[in-house]
Design a protein that fits this description.
Layout: H1 4-16, E1 21-26, E2 29-34, E3 37-40, E4 46-49, H2 73-78, E5 90-94, E6 99-102, E7 118-119, E8 124-130, E9 133-138, E10 143-148, E11 155-156, E12 161-166
Antiparallel strand pairs: 1-2, 3-4, 5-12, 6-8, 6-11, 7-10, 8-9, 10-12
């Protein structure tokens, strides 16, 4: 939840901007701030309807689980991920940026790497798209791919693990 000083700063910034409504949601809490709106009456005189910023109390909602979608058999086969026990010979290849993860250079191509593939430091393992730029990600490790941690087309964060590699 926002601190009072942060909330005051947001109100000040919204007041100085052309934004008429601002909504902030975090962990089931919602804050809504609305600015005055301008309307014209029939005499062509402008009236300003004054409204005070509205701050809503936290709303607690129970989220229902989303219905599961049936995955086509061919796609399910491709997305199988083996669970690997933690040991010292396992290293993670992490995303160097925020973006969209792609396992293949194009939709009709084969993935860059699959579970069981041998790689070295210069092997391209995936693409991360950021701001319409497709960045090839190199393994920076030598070994065997033992786990794919991200699905094709998913958003990834900076430093998020993408693959697990057995180095010994």
């Amino acid at each position: 939840m926002l601190k009072v000083q942060e909330l005051r700063e947001i109100i000040r910034l919204i007041d100085q901007s052309s934004i008429s409504e601002f909504v902030y949601e975090d962990n089931g809490s919602t804050i809504t701030i609305k600015k005055p709106t301008v309307v014209q009456n029939s005499n062509a005189v402008q009236e300003i309807i004054h409204t005070q910023p509205v701050v809503q109390a936290p709303i607690v909602e129970e989220k229902q689980p989303e219905p599961t979608k049936e995955v086509p058999k061919q796609q399910a086969k491709e997305e199988v991920v083996e669970t690997v026990e933690d040991d010292d010979s396992i290293v993670e290849i992490v995303s160097p940026m925020v973006g969209t993860f792609y396992r293949k250079p194009s939709p009709e191509s084969d993935p860059y790497v699959k579970i069981g593939d041998k790689i070295d430091e210069n092997t391209i393992v995936c693409i991360v798209e950021a701001m319409k730029l497709f960045n090839e990600i190199e393994a920076e490790a030598t070994g065997e791919i033992v786990e794919v941690l991200v699905g094709d087309g998913e958003l990834v964060e900076y430093g998020q693990a993408l693959f697990k590699v057995k180095t010994k």
